[in-house]
Each structure stands twice: as structure tokens, then as C-alpha cells.
């Protein structure tokens, strides 16, 4: 929306108001001719806006601290994290359940 | 949820597990450059240096060093520009449109195809700068308040639309490609042995931690970017075609141009992807990831778009006659039988006839034939642009100004420059970044790998298709 508005403002203001130009016998403000630029600007703003949002919500940025449970999770392992302090079950019980249901490794880590 | 039919041939062969995928693809990134790579890289750099010298001279001396004359004012520069932009269409098509269509075979080739897109668009942009003759004034194409008076760019002009279209396409493709790279960069970061590479890959991996939430957002952003890129892909070549179609030159002034250019772009782009992937596949021993299935699927796209292009050529010819416009008809008869007849028939043979060979399953699944036809298609698509541009211009309304165009060594040298640039960038990419999207391949492996242990895949082995003969295990 912002991109679309920016593009429309830019095209109509520059071509129609600031320095009206008649090109090819067309009206100074000829909206059909502004569609390509408006479309491209809309897509550009949306894409960058979405990517920006994605990076911010995930806390991603150059040299951000990954804060990972296990570095092998980016290779071939899956990690399930359970917060011990907010869990009613005892630590040993949780470890036992996990091991019984086929966990390859159970670690207790401080974060 | 997406369900894969058990009768579908597997996409990844050789019984790869998740760890195998990481291992196979990271090997290139982590190891020392191979001898083949060093040789190829040296050649590319030499070509690039030669091209840069030619380019320098073009700018130093002026565009007079090209073979242009007052009748043919646009020739190889725009031919090469349109050709490269066309090639740059396949990558985003594969990653965006095929993602929306849920075509899983794209996972093995999307990374390299997107990289190819970005480099091809860079090459195309270099021709825009070149044909300006005074590249230091390139900013005039931007809507900046002019220091010499308040003149703005003309937003009615398709050339200005092009500036917006190409720069948007380039930036969105780059961002899309980079977002796809982040999980893989994180994999390399976590495997890195040396501090330096951990730091570098860590910087670019942006602190990716692969948590479920991050992954779910990643899936969404991929879908959204794919949804945005799909109309973008179609719009870029449409706008490029309007550079011609909005003019009044016979042979350019046709409404069929936008769809016909888009089909042609996808056609040449897939041919270039085939060329690059077939080489990468052999050099990096990725036959299990880029299988004959992938090659066949791409060949089907080539045949489809090639046929669309063929129909467009014939329609154009028919309309030129049917319109009853003398100049229009002459432009087309001149294309086919005039002094540039050889270019026209080269285009017809390469683009219309050669992809039809892929109706044969045997040729479609033959690596040698695929490579050969892809090269032919690329040559044909270059001739298509040459035919459109030079043959439409060289005989204009005034027979006294009819002329021929012949390229000088600087026309050729500047074209060579773009090849040097393209291959240098592609080789750097294939050495320092994973050429296959590991994360996405891992996502399809469960439903599409040949013989993943039952424990992991959750599907009994007997239910899967028995090993088809064309996907024979190399071991």
C-alpha cells in the first residue's frame, strides 16, 4: 500500500504537477501509463517489508547470536526443548519418558 | 498436507539420509578448490579481463567503436540485454511459480537457478550501462530532482518502466535467494572447523537457530515472496517487450510481444539452467540429487515454452499479412527472405524445430542430447532478439537509408565481457555457497527418497516403488 501510494504520488506529482509534460499527446496525468511503475514499487515495498518483518520477528541480523540448543540441529538432528522450571513433572521423570520413547540423547542445559 | 503418490519415482536417489545430504553438498564448500574448478575459474577470469579491456575502450572512445550506423541504432547491445534478462527468468520461475504449484522437483535446482538469475540480470544491467555510452550519467534514469532544472524522468516511457522493473526484479530475486540461503549458511556455520569461516558464514547466517517457530515463519515468508515474485517474473519481460511494442517500427509494433517474450524468456532460461546444472552435476558428483527426473521435467518445460514461441512466430507472420499493412508485411518478408534470411532461419530451426525433438522420451532423458539442445536453444534465442532488433531496423521507411549491420571487435568483446562476468560469478558461487538447497532437499527426502530407513520415513519399504531401472544406484 505504501509502495503503491508512493509510486502514484511520485508519478503524478512529477509528471502532472511539478513540471507538466505532454508526451505522445497524452494527458499530463495519464494513469494507465503509470501502472508498470506503480506495480513494481508495490511489489518492491511489500517484499522488503515482509523480509524486514521476518528478520525482526526472528531476531535475525548480521552476527546475531544463534542461541541454539545444539549445533547439530542444523545438520541431521531434531531437538525438542522442555523447560524444566515451568514443568510440573520432576526432572528424572521427564528424562525417563524421553528415553523410553526413543530419544537418542537427553541433556540438561542451562540457558 | 501434501501427499506424494507412491508410484512417483523418487526425486533423490541413492538412499540418502539427512546427514548424507549435508555431507555431499558441504563437501564442495569446505574442501579445497578442485583442479577443474581452478582451471575453469582461471579461464573465466581471463575472459573477464579481456572483456573489461574492451568495455573500457568502448567507454573511453565512445559508442562509435561499435558497428552501429544511423539506420541500425540498436544492435548487439540490446540483443544481449534482452537475451540475458530472458535467461534470468528461469530462476525465479523455478523458485516462485513451482513453489506455488507444489512441484517438489524444484528443490534440487532452485538454488543454482536463482543464482544464475541474479548473475544474468547483472550481465543484462551491464549492457544497459554500456549502451548509455556515458555510464557516469546513468543516474539520469532515476527520478531524482535535477540539479540543472526541475525536469523529471518521463514516466510514460517504457525505458523508465524498465529501470523500475529490472531493479525491482533484481532486488526481490536477491532477497528471495538470500532468505533461502540462511538455513544452509547456518548449517555450514555449525560445521565450520576454522574460526574465520565460522565468523564469515555466521555473519551471513544472521543467527539462524532453526527453531520450529523460525521454520514456520520461514515457510510463510517463502510463500509470500513466491506469491510476489510470480507476477514480477511475468511483468519484467512484459515491460522489456514494451520497449519495442510501444514503438511504431514495423516488426516491433505488435500486441503479441508481451506473452511471446515471457514464453521465450522461460524457454531460454531453462535451457541455460540445463547447461549449468548438467556441468555442475558431473563436476560435483550430484547425480543423486539432480536425477534424470529433474532433467526430464525441465525438458518438458522447454518443449512447452518452445512450442508457445513457435506459435507466436507463426501468428506474428500471419497477422503481418492479415493486417494488410504494407510496411508490416514487408518487414516480415524481409526477415525471412531479405539479406538477414540466415538469422531468421537459424532462429526458426533452433527455437521451433529443435525443442520438438524432446517429444521423444529417449532424447528427453539423454544427458548429451539435453546439453546439446540447450546450447542450440540459447543460440536460437540470441538470434531471435537479433532478428527482432536488427532486421526490423536495417530497412526503414526510406530505401535510401537502408543499411546493414556488422559487428566490430568491440561489439564482440563487450558480449564476451558478459560471459566472463557471468561465469566468474557463477564459479565463485558454486565454490563458496551450497549449490543445492540442503534444507529443502531434506524436506522432500522423506516422501521422495528411494530407500530411507522405514524408521525415519514412516512408510513401509514395500509400499514404495521398487527401484526403477533408470535410477540405478551407482554403488
Number of domains of chain A: 2
Annotation field: number of helices of chain B: 17
From the alpha-carbon coordinates, what is the Rg of chain B to the nearest angstrom?
24 Å
Number of helices of chain A: 3
Q: Name the chain pair with the biggest interface and residue counts per chain.
A: A-B, 45 and 56 residues
Describe the largest sheet of chain B.
Answer: none
SS-derived structural category of chain A: mainly alpha
How many beta-strand runs of chain B? 0
According to CATH, the fold-level topology of chain B is Formate dehydrogenase/DMSO reductase fold
CATH homologous superfamily of chain B - what is it? Formate dehydrogenase/DMSO reductase domain
Mean pLDDT of chain A comes to 73
* DSSP E strands of chain A, number: 0
Mind summarizing the main beta sheet of chain A? none
* Approximate shape of chain A: rod-shaped
Rg of chain A over CA atoms, rounded to whole Å, is 28 Å
Q: SSE string of chain B, helix = H, strand = E?
A: HHHHHHHHHHHHHHHHH
The ordered string of helix (H) and strand (E) elements of chain A is HHH
Any low-confidence stretches of chain A, pLDDT <50, length ≥5? none
Q: What general form of chain B does the structure show?
A: globular
Brief overview:
The complex is a heterodimer of chains A (111) and B (475). Chain A contains 3 helices and no strands.
Amino acid at each position: 500500500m505504501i509502495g503503491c501510494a508512493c509510486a502514484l504520488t511520485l508519478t503524478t506529482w512529477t509528471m502532472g504537477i511539478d513540471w507538466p509534460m505532454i508526451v505522445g499527446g497524452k494527458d499530463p496525468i495519464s494513469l494507465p501509463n503509470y501502472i508498470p511503475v506503480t506495480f513494481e514499487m508495490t511489489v518492491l515495498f511489500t517484499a522488503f517489508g515482509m523480509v524486514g518483518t521476518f528478520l525482526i520477528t526472528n531476531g535475525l541480523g548480521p552476527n546475531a547470536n544463534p542461541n541454539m540448543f545444539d549445533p547439530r540441529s542444523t545438520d541431521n538432528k531434531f531437538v525438542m526443548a522442555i523447560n524444566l522450571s515451568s514443568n510440573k513433572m520432576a526432572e528424572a521423570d521427564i528424562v525417563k519418558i524421553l528415553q523410553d520413547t526413543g530419544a537418542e540423547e537427553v541433556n540438561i542445559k542451562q540457558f | 498436507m501434501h501427499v506424494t503418490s507412491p508410484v512417483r519415482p523418487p526425486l533423490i536417489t541413492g538412499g540418502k539420509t539427512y546427514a548424507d545430504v549435508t555431507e555431499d553438498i558441504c563437501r564442495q564448500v569446505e574442501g579445497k578448490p578442485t583442479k577443474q574448478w581452478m582451471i575453469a575459474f582461471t579461464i573465466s577470469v581471463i575472459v573477464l579481463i579481456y572483456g573489461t579491456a574492451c568495455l573500457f575502450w568502448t567507454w573511453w572512445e565512445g559508442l562509435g567503436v561499435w558497428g552501429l550506423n544511423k539506420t541500425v541504432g540498436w544492435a548487439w547491445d540490446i540483443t544481449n540485454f534482452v537475451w540475458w534478462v530472458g535467461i534470468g527468468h528461469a530462476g525465479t520461475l523455478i523458485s516462485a511459480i513451482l513453489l506455488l504449484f507444489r512441484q517438489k522437483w524444484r528443490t534440487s535446482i532452485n538454488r543454482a537457478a536463482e543464482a544464475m538469475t541474479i548473475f544474468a540480470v547483472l550481465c543484462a544491467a551491464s549492457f544497459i550501462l554500456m549502451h548509455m555510452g556515458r555510464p557516469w550519467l546513468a543516474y539520469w534514469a532515476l527520478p531524482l530532482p535535477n540539479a540543472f532544472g526541475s525536469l523529471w524522468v518521463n514516466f510514460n516511457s517504457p525505458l523508465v518502466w524498465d529501470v523500475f522493473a529490472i531493479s525491482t526484479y533484481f532486488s526481490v530475486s536477491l532477497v528471495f535467494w538470500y532468505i533461502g540461503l540462511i538455513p544452509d549458511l547456518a548449517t555450514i556455520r555449525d560445521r565450520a572447523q576454522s574460526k574465520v569461516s565460522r565468523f564469515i558464514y555466521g555473519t551471513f547466517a544472521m543467527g539462524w537457530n532453526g527453531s520450529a517457530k523460525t521454520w514456520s515463519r520461514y515457510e510463510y515468508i517463502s510463500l509470500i515472496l513466491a506469491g510476489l515474485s510470480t507476477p514480477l517474473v511475468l511483468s519484467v519481460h512484459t515491460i522489456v517487450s514494451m520497449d519495442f511494442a510501444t514503438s511504431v517500427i514495423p516488426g516491433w509494433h505488435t500486441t503479441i510481444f508481451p506473452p511471446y517474450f515471457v514464453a521465450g524468456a522461460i524457454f531460454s532460461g531453462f535451457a541455460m539452467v540445463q547447461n549449468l546444472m548438467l556441468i555442475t552435476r558431473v563436476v560435483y558428483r550430484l547425480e543423486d540429487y539432480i536425477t534424470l527426473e529433474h532433467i526430464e521435467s525441465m525438458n518438458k518445460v522447454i518443449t512447452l515454452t518452445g512450442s508457445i514461441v513457435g506459435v507466436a512466430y507463426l501468428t506474428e507472420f500471419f497477422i503481418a499479412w492479415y493486417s494488410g499493412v504494407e510496411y508490416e508485411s514487408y518487414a516480415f518478408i524481409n526477415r525471412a527472405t531479405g539479406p538477414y534470411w540466415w538469422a531468421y532461419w537459424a532462429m526458426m530451426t533452433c527455437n521451433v524445430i529443435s525443442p520438438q525433438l524432446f517429444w521423444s522420451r529417449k532424447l528427453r532423458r539423454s544427458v548429451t542430447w539435453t546439453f546439446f539442445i540447450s546450447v542450440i536453444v540459447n543460440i536460437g534465442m540470441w538470434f531471435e532478439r537479433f532478428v527482432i532488433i536488427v532486421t526490423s531496423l536495417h530497412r526503414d521507411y526510406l530505401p535510401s537509408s537502408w543499411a546493414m549491420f556488422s559487428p566490430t571487435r568491440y561489439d564482440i568483446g563487450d558480449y564476451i565481457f558478459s560471459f566472463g562476468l557471468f561465469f566468474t560469478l557463477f564459479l565463485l558461487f558454486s565454490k563458496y555457497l551450497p549449490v543445492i538447497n540442503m534444507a529443502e532437499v531434506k524436506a522432500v527426502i522423506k516422501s521422495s527418497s528411494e530407500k530411507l530407513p522405514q524408521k525415519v520415513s514412516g512408510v513401509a519399504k514395500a509400499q514404495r516403488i521398487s527401484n526403477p531401472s533408470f535410477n540405478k544406484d551407482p554403488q
